[in-house]
Amino acid sequence: MRLQLALSVTSAALAAGNPLAKRAAIDDCLKAANVPVDTKGSTDWNNDIRAFNQRLQYTPVAIAVARTTEHVAAAVSCAAKVGVKVNPKSGGHSYASFGLGGENGHLIVQLDRMSKVTVDSSTKIATVEAGSRLGHVATVLYNNGKRAFSHGTCPGVGVAGHSLHGGFGFSSHTHGLAVDWIVGATVVLANSTVVEASETVNPDIFWALKGSGSNFGIVTHFKFKTFEAPSQVTKFDINLNWGSGQQIASGWQAMQEWVLAGSMPKEMNMRVFGSGSQTQIQGLYHGSSNNLRTAIQPLLSKIGGSLASAQQYDWMGAFSYYTYGNGNVDLTHPYSQTETFYSKSMVTTALSSNTMKAVGDYWINQAKRNSRNWFIIIDFYGGKNSAITKVPTNATSYPYRDQYVWLFELYDRVNSGSYPSNGFSFLDGWVKSFTDNHRGTNDEWGMYINYADPTMSRTEAQNVYFRKNLPKLQQLKAQYDPTELFYYPQAVSPAT
Ligand SMILES: Cc1cc2nc3c(=O)[nH]c(=O)nc-3n(C[C@H](O)[C@H](O)[C@H](O)COP(=O)(O)OP(=O)(O)OC[C@H]3O[C@@H](n4cnc5c(N)ncnc54)[C@H](O)[C@@H]3O)c2cc1C
Ligand SMILES: *[C@@H]1O[C@H](CO)[C@@H](O)[C@H](O)[C@H]1NC(C)=O
Ligand SMILES: *[C@@H]1O[C@H](CO)[C@@H](O)[C@H](O)[C@H]1NC(C)=O
């Protein structure tokens, strides 16, 4: 009785849009439902609101610290009742702080206390709680029969945000994106119902989750299929003496021919990494160093370079190398890594020499001549032997398949202080050197939501993140979350 009275009083205040009343109402509702929360101002609160990207810090109305699917469902139900937006936060690595809602005043469902990982000994399917970080997942999988699936390299990244929106790394040319290894999910929908989703159960929800999960629910558990980790992998580098736009265009064109001709073997995974101090190919070959040397020779002949290093590791040894840190990849709560940065991405089909020259000119004339702390990564993403682009474009809501060849990340950070306002035009200009020259149709370039750029309008962002798959996503959004409970500034909008 007392609870009901309290709720009806606050409803009146809510109707008047009183933010303090909303805060009190959400606190009351979570408490009545026995959902654990962070006390405002506590150490846990301060840790849980800390954005990985310090450029974009937001303050939630409350933080539910879920330990079970029931906690998540109750939190979603409270958000709907009180009328606040709700977002799950897994590893918290969103470039746009979308795990914090991408603006103030949301209810955050903090998932990183849910990090249990098991592997079924007969099916080899992994059950992974949605707050697990990649390094922890990789460690447990490897310790259970040397299993693995394909994903990115940073051990602190959350498995949920990463795999629900793509997930590219040094296994992706061989084995595809993290999203392609999801075979099932337990998900709390906007109406707070808990459902299973797979190819055969709720297949349209499954389709939407696989590329656009943040718009459709809160996944609490994943099922991932796994592969047997290769017994040896070889990490290698090739230095590139790229000193002019013309050199960049001709070297890069030679690499593109090698990819398109099908000469890049399936086992090869690599990228060009460029910064103020170095430009090199960095790769991970799934096989021995002898086999790498044979496989890479045709490319070296084409670009006139040589291997600067080639070092064999076991599976986890290679993973810990790419942490660039103390080698500890098994990360769970608490976690406190941050950076202050702006980043942009591109995903493109094959590029003309003109486009490569324009991008290369910007690289040399603008990037190389400033003293900023930037990098560019050109991932060898698609091509004839890539597992990613063999998947049909309509098979998942993640859209970049078929003729896509390159994935780019442009990143600019500061080591201390706040991000300078002139940083934006630096990276915006670099992306313009792509889009001015590689016009094509909408099907020839896009951007990667896992490298979210919150400076874009909602309309533009939805288009460049989802391209051909956007209309179906908007239909499904209208069906499953018509009131946009799972909202952030670049969320998929419901079809009208
Ligand atoms: C240091 C660093 C290295 C990275 N390296 C790579 C890389 O090698 N390859 C690559 O592809 N990407 C990489 N990324 C990008 C990374 O994949 C994305 O930022 C990813 O979305 C982060 O997931 P998260 O769970 O850590 O983030 P969060 O901020 O927790 O979540 C990101 C988004 O997913 C949503 N979400 C979180 N949990 C759930 C859930 N359970 N159900 C539904 N939606 C959910 C959030 O609401 C938010 O919208 C890197 C990022 C960083 C910061
Ligand atoms: C919630 O939505 C799902 C999917 O549309 C539906 O199957 C389920 O019946 C709904 N639950 C309630 C309680 O309305
Ligand atoms: C994708 O398109 C093909 C061919 O049009 C069709 O047969 C298939 O059912 C579609 N798949 C999905 C998941 O929509």
UniProtKB/TrEMBL annotation:
Molecular function via GO: FAD binding; oxidoreductase activity
Keywords (alphabetical) are: FAD, Flavoprotein, Oxidoreductase, Signal
* Domain FAD-binding PCMH-type, chain residue ranges per copy: 56-229
PROSITE patterns from the UniProt entry:
FAD_PCMH
- Which InterPro entries does this chain map to? BBE, FAD-bd_PCMH, FAD-bd_PCMH-like_sf, FAD-bd_PCMH_sub2, FAD-linked_Oxidoreductase, Oxid_FAD_bind_N
Quote the SUPFAM superfamilies the UniProt record gives: FAD-binding/transporter-associated domain-like
- The answer on whether this UniProt entry bears the keyword Ligase reads no
Pfam families attached here? BBE, FAD_binding_4
Q: What is this protein called?
A: FAD-binding PCMH-type domain-containing protein
| Organism of origin | Cercophora newfieldiana
